[in-house]
Design brief:
This protein is 39% helix and 13% strand. By secondary structure, the protein is α/β, with parallel strands linked by helices.
Amino acid sequence: MVLGCKLGEIATKRFTVPPAGKRIIHIDNVAEEFGRTAEPELCLWGDARETIVELHHMLEPEVAEIRARQQGYADSVAAKMAEWRVAAAPRLTSDEIPVSMGRLMGELNQAMPADAILVADGGFAAHWGGLLFDTKAPGRTFVPDRGFASIGYGLPGAMGATLAAEGRKVVSLTGDGGFNMMLGELETARRLNLSFTIVIVNNAASGYVKALQHLMYGAGAYHASDLAETNYARIAEAMGCRGIRVEDPAMLAAAIATGLASEGPTLIDLVVTRDPAKMLPAADNRAVQVKKGDRVA
């Protein structure tokens, strides 16, 4: 079942997912998406939420039969997830310096309440967040900008989530490149007394761009992807907000706890690797083989 996805090149891993021969039910509110990149067996044109609710009611008499039929598959997914958690544990607890993005996600998983919201800017903030963030409860707790081909969403996204979900904790991830575009809105957040935590992934680069340049063209072949070294915690303090600079993973838990417990905006300036081969979640981007025509996502 495909729900609200246009089945483009990135989402389908260059049109290899779903594999050939799979029966597809496609639900979307834009009819032009049906059959554009794959041939669904059934097209359901309508609001995604309302369509799912209607399907739920229609299938209710068959719930027991469906659950029994799918139980083996559900158990296998749980087992695979348990294996994955063991494999991912070294990333989530890494003591490496500069601080690993995996360690950041591990600390957020531990600290954020079940109903807290993680906002993720475009680029690798959403990439790392989507890979390693644990959603602990039903509902919308992960709000990424991935797929909208934009950055700069992290700060206004945090402000919007805080206003829309009063009483819930909000944490936002953004790169330094994206944050630079919207930095002035810290004044707005302070003036409105919005309480959220924003983590600036500080690698002095447009990290996703630089990592892909490294992958595609090799070490040293970078263009317009480096940024000036900046202490964003000092900028936050100068604008009347709380600023915490984190250069050691041992400081992360306390910084996040401070942000979650504080009134007003808290900015965590997280110093991460400057090595473009380590900026994306792949173990080592230099090991990836890229063929002509590939678009690595």
